[in-house]
Amino acid sequence: MNETLKQFSSSTISKALLKQIEQKAGVYKEKFGREPALMEVCGSHTMAVAKTGVKKLLAGKVKLISGPGCPVCVTDQKSIDAMIQLAESDDRIICTFGDMVRVPGTTRALIDAKTDGKDVRVVYSPSDAVEIAKENPEKQVVFLGIGFETTIPVLAVALKKADDEMVKNFSMWVTTKLVEPILRKLLNEGDVLVDALLLPGHVSIVLGKHHYQYLVDEYRVPGVICGFEPVELLSGIYKSIELLLNESPEIINSHQHVVRDEGNRQAQLMIDQYFQGCDEAWRGIGVIENSGLDIRDKYIHLNAKSRFDIKAGEPKRTKCRCGEIIRGLIPPEECNLFAKACTPINPVGPCMVSSEGSCAASYQFLREE
Amino acid sequence: MVEKISLAHGDGGELAHQLIQDVFITTFGHHDQAKLDAAILHIPQEKLTISTDSFVIKPTFFRGGNIGKLAICGTVNDIAVSGATPLYITVAFILEEGFSIRQLKEIVFSMAEEAKKANVQIVSGDTKVVERGSTDGIFINTTGIGVVKTEEMLPRKIDEQDVVIISGTIGDHGVSILSARGELGLVTELNSDCASLNDLTREVLNVSSRVKMMRDPTRGGVATTLVEICEDFNVTIEINEDTLPVKEEVEGACDILGFDPLYLANEGKLLIIVAQEDEGKVLAALRKFDIGREATTIGHVSEVKTNGRLFLKMLLGSRRRLNRLAGMQLPRIC
Question: Which A-chain residues 63-82 have CB contacts (< 8 A) with chain B?
């Protein structure tokens, strides 16, 4: 198995693929008068193309645009403020994914609350938070449930565990996002020129290949589902350009060893059992109808939003241009704050501190100075 | 025998006396010196080096060591990488009321054992006990004293084309501790690399007079240590991704959690900058030791007298700048 995995990061195969991409991109440019523009929908892809050097190596040949797939980055400031406010009580233990800890709120970040003695814990799995609740019956334990379709099933597993085991002091503050509504919004508005999509490897494990057929049927935009290792990324890019040259849009599953046509039925059922559609506010974009999921009314006893009276005020306006960055309208370097007022140590927006944020990717992996 | 540390163990009375006799003096074995308020040291006519470090690791016991072994290795290594031979060590304990004396004995035993291995004498010590909740079980401070020959004092001037060598795989300690904490659902069989490096540094200095600098890349990992060297000595260093020795378990854990082994702590690895012509000699010297068997060259100095930067040459051929770790590494969502 490890040998198979190693092939995905082989530099020999990658270098050969790079050459082939350059050649195909040249043909594309001759035919259409400009470089092909591909959007990596997923934040982990944004990180991977930056970290492996793919983005730099293809600069001027293939335009890679970071999309809206970083779950922390698309979280509305008001929701972030509410989550931080939750942590301000001594009677609560706040459990969260690591990505959220340094995200700046209007007044402070979770990590500042922790420094002040509030109980904020990083867990890898939401179910760990249920265990923490069982170990601390005198405290209210709240898990901050953010994420896309990749993460929502594991949130459901934690809700199931808490419900089955009747863990009364556990609840979840949910602000999840769905991929389809934001892609539709981007494609409908047409502000950003995208020829093809690199579709998320992890989300697709849950949703399956067939889910994306609307991209072809309604928008005539091709997409390639791909993994995160250099060879997988590069073959995804290669296949995308090939589809564009053939002018025959379709969805290709280039991550077949883990993504099935119909996705993971069990995960989908879990989502459906515990969650229902809701309108969600996206950072810098606004509310998109039915673009997120919240806990089903049947499980309202596990919903932190109904358990606690948290009302975050209107967030302070900053010059952070995350909204435009996550829509792919501008690269991070065009934000005036980037690498000056906004750095990983002093972040202004979540894109700079999330492990999938495009500003973090650019700051860490693309700057030479 | 009382089983737990109480506040009385720190008050200078009978219990304190018993603790010092039973746990420290018998284990560390320095009966005469313990009668004095200060130890008398016999120092050869050479230059002295001194280094101090405090150890607060959680958990106290981990695969491959415990806080005591770490407290000796850490200070021995700080002295050794300066080119010196560590001779003496002082230890100070801050114990939490209620701490198990059986565990304390185990820790002290590891310290004595490691000190013997590293050929250093523990010559002075102190114990304080604080109320339950005021500390996390046990904290240890150690201060080391070593001697160094003028001609072996490091650092020396770094030149273009000098090579960067690491004595073994990176990130083992970091992943082992993460796993020992059990917070991230990560289970590995991996041992911390915690070890004294003074035998390695001695051998390296014996075979080469062109060693420019040695460091032990602990917190912040290899990347942070090299960034510091680049900035402090105004050199540009380029390391190669495909030569970095990383154990499969470490790579796997990093992939899952979104960590970078270059930024994970090591507690028994030696980073050496040496003139290119002595590269082979130094590698051969390191590989004589069990803990140096996987020693390898990971990069070179590409520019001197410049604004110090560290670059990683990546598998696909491009390079990217490596900066200091910004805050701590945190596990990601997906």
Answer: 71-72
What are the helix and strand counts (H, E) for chain B? Answer: 9, 13
Q: Which domains does chain A show, CATH number per domain?
A: 77-178+263-307 (3.40.50.11740)
pLDDT in tens, chain A (369 residues): 567 767 787 889 999 999 999 999 999 999 999 999 999 999 999 999 999 999 999 999 999 999 999 999 999 999 999 999 999 999 999 999 988 998 999 989 999 999 899 999 999 899 999 999 999 999 999 999 999 999 999 999 999 999 999 999 999 999 999 999 999 999 999 989 999 999 999 999 999 999 999 999 999 999 999 999 999 999 999 999 999 999 989 999 999 999 999 999 999 999 999 999 999 999 988 999 999 999 999 999 999 999 999 988 888 888 999 889 988 899 999 999 999 999 988 899 999 988 889 999 999 888 876
Q: How far is B141 from chain A (nearest CA, A)?
A: 24
| CA–CA min distance A319, chain B (Å) | 22
Task: Quote the ipTM score.
Answer: 0.80
Would you call B289 exposed, middle or buried from its count of C-beta atoms within 10 A (0-12, 13-18, 19+)? middle
Domain spanning B163-322, CATH architecture:
Alpha-Beta Complex (3.90)
Task: Name the token pair of A283.
Answer: 């950072």
Chain A residues in contact with B332 by the CB 8 A cut-off are: 97-99, 355-356
Check if B35 contacts A (Cβ < 8 Å). no
Q: Does A355 touch chain B (CB under 8 A)?
A: yes
* Main-chain phi, psi angles of A145, to 5 degrees: -95, 95
Round to whole Å and give the CA distance between B180 and B202.
32
What is the residue extent of each domain of chain B?
7-150, 163-322
SS3 assignment, position A68: strand
CATH tag, B7-150: 3.30.1330.10
